[in-house]
């Protein structure tokens, strides 16, 4: 019963804190997710479209970021398209889509849960 509200908080905090770590004074590249005229918006990739991922996307969209959500379920991706409309890009989860999205991103948020198991490692340093 506590997983859903905890996931909401975790997703929202991930986007907010991630945005802070993009600031130069926090050791980041000095990226403003909303961008400014003449400068591209920051790119956020969220791996996992469940409760945490959806809430991370809400905050990232609210901050003005260019947001991509990756999930295994085509049905969930359709639901996310309904929720966000053209505010986010959705992709099926596979090694190629993950690798390409991560390469292009300023901020990557992992929001994948397999009940009873450790979180899968979907992104490597390579």
TrEMBL record:
One of its GO terms (cellular component) is plasma membrane. GO terms for molecular function: alanine dehydrogenase activity. This is Alanine dehydrogenase. It comes from Bacillus wiedmannii. PANTHER family: ALANINE DEHYDROGENASE. Belongs to the AlaDH/PNT family. InterPro entries: Ala_DH/PNT_CS2 (IPR008143), AlaDH/PNT_NAD(H)-bd (IPR007698), NAD(P)-bd_dom_sf (IPR036291). GO terms for biological process: alanine catabolic process.
């Amino acid at each position: 019963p506590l997983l859903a509200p905890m996931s909401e908080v975790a997703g929202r905090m991930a986007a907010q804190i991630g945005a802070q770590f993009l600031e130069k004074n926090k050791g980041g590249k000095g990226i403003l997710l909303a961008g400014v005229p003449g400068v591209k918006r920051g790119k956020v990739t969220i791996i996992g479209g469940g409760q945490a991922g959806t809430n991370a996307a809400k905050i990232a969209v609210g901050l003005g970021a260019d947001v991509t959500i990756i999930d295994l379920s085509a049905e969930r991706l359709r639901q996310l398209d309904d929720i966000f409309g053209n505010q986010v890009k959705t992709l099926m989860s596979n090694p190629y889509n993950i690798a390409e999205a991560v390469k292009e991103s300023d901020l990557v948020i992992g929001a994948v849960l397999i009940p009873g198991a450790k979180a899968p490692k979907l992104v490597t340093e390579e």
